[in-house]
Amino acid sequence: MRGLLFDLDGVIYNDEVLIAGAVETVEWAVARGVPFLFITNTSSKNREALVEKLHRFGIRTDPSHILTPCVAAANWLRSDGGGPVALFVREPAQREFEGLALVALEAETGARYVVVGDLGEAWDYKNLNRAFRLLHQQPESQLIALGMTRYWQTAEGLCLDVAPFVAALEHASGRKALVFGKPAEAFFQAAAGQLGLPVGQVAMIGDDIHADVGGAQAAGMKGVLVKTGKFRPGDLGRVVKPDVVLESVAGAPDWWEMEQTQ
């Protein structure tokens, strides 16, 4: 192993609560010279907001060390240049899509791409139906999912994430979503490329047995599961088998050093 990918929610912090040992683990990676990225399916914030949040927790970083589905999707859309975009993401995350042609906020036709992220409680019938109409009215339009995380841990408990709403739109429109974010193989490959390492030399540390561990393994990486965030004991009995299980990210340095001696 030569590089690490850290999930944010559930690994570094739970919503607004820092996970014990996270700061020390990041400081260890910096001091040890281990190349790393924060790789998250968060689609409600831009990278600057995530940097600010990490700074509040005492973790010094910058946007170049964070990869999100919004960044990956926006870069692809800029290179594809195929037409107007309908965004279903919160306002802060919309900043990652600056420079792209966007349809009007209430438009129900005219989108070449329908981009679906985490709207939280704003995912009401009106918004979901507008996304469906945009897809239905233009048969060649592409549904884009900003990750396929099913749920995440908050202070109030587990909450639905992007995947359930993408699944509803796929079912209603008959369209298959193009996924930017975990567990898409291309997303992990992009992260490894940003580190300048082959996927086989990178490990992903996450709390989601499917999106983090399963996605990383499918891309050729090691998948490390932590028992924080959304982790539940039943995750250990699923089809996906993590390469390593840690109590928390605080155990990553010891595991890493042991890995280097094998």
Tell me what you see in this structure.
There is one protein chain. The chain is α/β, with parallel strands linked by helices and 262 residues long. The chain has two domains: 3-68 and 185-261, Rossmann fold, CATH 3.40.50.1000; 80-180, HAD superfamily/HAD-like (Rossmann fold). The protein is 35% helix and 19% strand. It is built from nine helices and 14 strands. Strands 5-4-1-12-13-14 form a six-stranded parallel sheet. A four-stranded parallel sheet has the order 6-7-8-11. Helix 4 (91-94) links the parallel strand 6 (85-88) and strand 7. Helix 5 (125-137) packs across helix 6. The relative contact order is 0.17. The model has no long low-confidence stretch (mean pLDDT 95).
SSE series: EEEHEHEHEHEHEEEHEHEHEEH
CATH architecture of the largest domain: 3-Layer(aba) Sandwich
Beta-sheet strand percentage? 15-25%
CATH superfamily of the largest domain: HAD superfamily/HAD-like
Within the largest sheet, what's the order of strands?
A: 5-4-1-12-13-14
Gyration radius over CA = 18 Å
Helix content: 25-40%
Structural class estimated from helices and strands: alpha/beta
Tell me the distance between the termini.
Answer: 11 Å
CATH topology of the largest domain: Rossmann fold
What's the helix count?
A: 9
Count of separate structural domains: 2
Uncertain segments are none
User: Tell me about the biggest sheet?
Assistant: 6 strands, parallel
The CATH class of the largest domain, by name, is: Alpha Beta
The pLDDT mean sits at 95
Gross morphology is: globular
**Number of strand elements:** 14
